[in-house]
Amino acid sequence: MAKVAVVFKVYPKDGQRAEVVANSIKDKLKPQGLQVEEIGFGIKCIKVLFMFDDAEESSSKMEAKLQAAEGVGQVEVAEESLV
Fold this sequence. Notes:
The protein is an alpha+beta fold. The chain is 27% helix and 48% strand. The protein has helices at 18-29, 59-68, and strands at 3-12, 33-40, 43-53, 72-82.
């Protein structure tokens, strides 16, 4: 069993504030790290770090959980590696 670290980029739906979506993700999914990042022209994304045992969880399941969070428009994997 290996530990996996995955960083997701989460983009809020139109009209949603990134900070509000970030707080919702933090409260519900308890990530190991979370940061709101300015992309440009007022557009922000949320970088979310999860670390988990690959036997218990997968990045696709975590992606689905993020996608189901309130205010989330799009989710993509930015980085994934073994720890």
